Amino acid sequence: MSTWETDFYRRPLQDETGNILWELLVCDPDGSLRYQAFCPQSQVSAGWLTEQLQQLVDAGNPLPKIIRAFRPQTFNLLEVACKPLGIEVEPTRQTPTLKHWLDERSRQYPTEPNYNGQPYQALDLEKPPPVPLPENLWGEQWRFAALAAGDLVEAFTGRMIPILELPEPLFPIRLGLASTIAVPGVVIRAGRKSMQLAQWLQQARPDSLNYMAGAPDGLILEAGFVDRWIVATFEDAEVTTAARTYEQRKLSSKGLHFLLVQPDDSGMTYSGFWLLRS
Question: Radius of gyration (Cα) for the chain, nearest Å?
């Protein structure tokens, strides 16, 4: 299934009349496709975006099944622009090839003659402070866990799990992880609310689950474009030590980790599993 990663947003550049320029970047995950175009801010529209995507197809590039966008403004325009082309638009923070290219472009902007001198951080999105999960979704218990990288995919493939997110690009073997590396995770036992919690999480689109030191310490779910949810807070020293180990393991696993929701600890029934990467 072909996929493109896309960003369309204003840059610290201007045309000869002083109009702010928006830049369109389109690439595929392996970087073999790279397309770039500029649009004056006064002409920004979904229609302009549709024309650019059609030009890419007319140039011999196969129409993708999915276009991914990590920026809300880009996603909103793409949703309209892709309807005439029959392309699905996926909101996700997981656009690594595109973000690497944007990082390169950010260093190039100050060297270009039409640079307007404004500081620019291409990957920064304004994030709200984290808020608690809805009270009706709180699970009965949660804990940190870990699975060997070599066992992770097999442990959940082929099982009757209602919600299963195992993106192939995040498979440990695709990330070059040794089979013995411990991939950390969080397991939530939610009892009768297990399926309700799993469905809510799926709608929230989990991206990563991170330990945040504070008073109290917290476990923060990054989801959607910029949403942040407080999964748990704790002050117990043993839990804090486990949380630090969790983060250390994420460093060893190249950011790979998981979230598992289950009704009980029998190990027989799961409601949702998400393979994530910071």
Answer: 21
pLDDT in tens, the chain (278 residues): 589 999 999 999 999 888 999 999 999 998 899 999 999 999 999 999 999 999 999 999 999 999 999 999 999 999 999 999 999 999 999 899 999 999 999 999 999 999 998 888 888 888 889 999 888 888 779 999 999 999 999 999 888 899 999 988 899 999 999 999 999 999 999 998 999 999 999 999 999 999 999 889 999 999 999 899 999 999 999 999 999 999 999 999 999 999 999 998 887 899 999 999 98
**End-to-end Cα spacing for the chain:** 24
pTM for this predicted structure: 0.82
Beta-carbon neighbour count of residue 60 at 10 Å?
A: 6
CA distances from 71 to 78, 102, 183, 222 (A): 10, 12, 28, 14
Write out the two tokens for 272. Answer: 């949702």
Helix, strand, coil proportions of the chain in percent (round to 5)? 30, 35, 35
Render the burial of 68-93: b for 16+ CB within 10 Å, e for the rest.
bbbbebbbebbbebbeeeebebbbbb
